[in-house]
Amino acid sequence: MTFDVPFTDLSAMTHEVRADVTDAWTGLLDTSRFIGGAAVEEFERCWARYCGTAHAIGVANGTDALHLALTALGVGPGDEVVVPANTFVASAEAVVLAGATPRFADVDERTLLITPDSLAATITSRTRAVIVVHLYGQMPDMDALGEVADRAGIAIVEDAAQAHGATWRGRRAGSVGAVGCFSFYPGKNLGAFGDAGAAVTADGDLAERIRCLRDHGRAPGSHHRHALIGTNSRLDAVQAVVLTAKLARLDGWTEARRAVADRYRAAVEYGPVRLVEERPGARGVYHLAVVRVPDRELARRRLAAMGVQTAIHYPVPCHEQQPYRRFATGPLPVAERAAAEVLSLPMFPHLSDEQVARVCKAVGELADVREGGHV
Question: What's this model's pTM, rounded to 2 decimal places?
Answer without folding.
Answer: 0.97
